Amino acid sequence: MTTNTVCPWCDTEIIWDEELGPEDECPYCNNSLRDYGTLQIDLDPAEKPHKAHTAEDKHDEHSHEDEERGWSNFQWEDDGILYDSPEAIKVQEGLDKLLHEQEEVPECPQCREYMVFVGKEQLKERFTPHLIGGEALLHAPVQLNVYTCMSCYQVSKFLDVQGRKQLNDSIQRLSKSE
To answer: Which parts of this chain are annotated as the region Disordered (predicted)?
Structure first.
């Protein structure tokens, strides 16, 4: 006799022998098959819950309060969310406007939030180009676009369009000479 289960992560049917019993992780995708890693949201309010205490029970008690509260609909606290004051909302609206006007919107390598373009930096005297075959990949002055993350304040610098073109042209010349 065998028992069948469907993995919620990869939708693969898992057949286990009854003597061995079900395992704790899927043999195909190696994800956990226990409930602790799964968030269950009841999409049909007419359907009655099978458990004694669910989020829907609390929802029935406070249905007029839960209509549009963002993360609070999942009974999560809003303490860590940036929108805790009118000033924070204004900052976020201004940030959104800036991000929509930028040509490039890189992600922060530290926290994965979007970064804001804050200016340019020119490298002249302190820039020493790397030489390959006696030729420099980049020639000074080099312009860098400077971006700052508004969440963790990480700063990143990227070559501007002319610097990128110069670097690509140098690499193409090197590939032709070989």
So the answer is: 47-69
Query: Do 156 and 127 form a contact (C-beta atoms < 8 A)?
Result: no
Dist CA 146 CA 116 (whole Å): 8
Q: Which domain holds residue 131?
A: 104-177
SS3 call for 123 = strand
Residue 141 domain flag: yes
Contact call for residues 39 and 9 (beta carbons, < 8 A) = no
Query: Which residues in the chain show pLDDT less than 50?
Result: 52-56, 58-59, 64-66, 69-76, 80, 82
* Angle subtended at Cα 176 by Cα 173 and Cα 178, rounded to the nearest 5 degrees: 115
pLDDT for 48 = 59
Assigned domain for 167 exists = yes
Q: 0.70 exceeded by the pTM?
A: no
Query: Taking the CA of residue 106 as centre, how many other CA atoms within 13 Å lie in the half-sphere pointing to its CB?
Result: 16
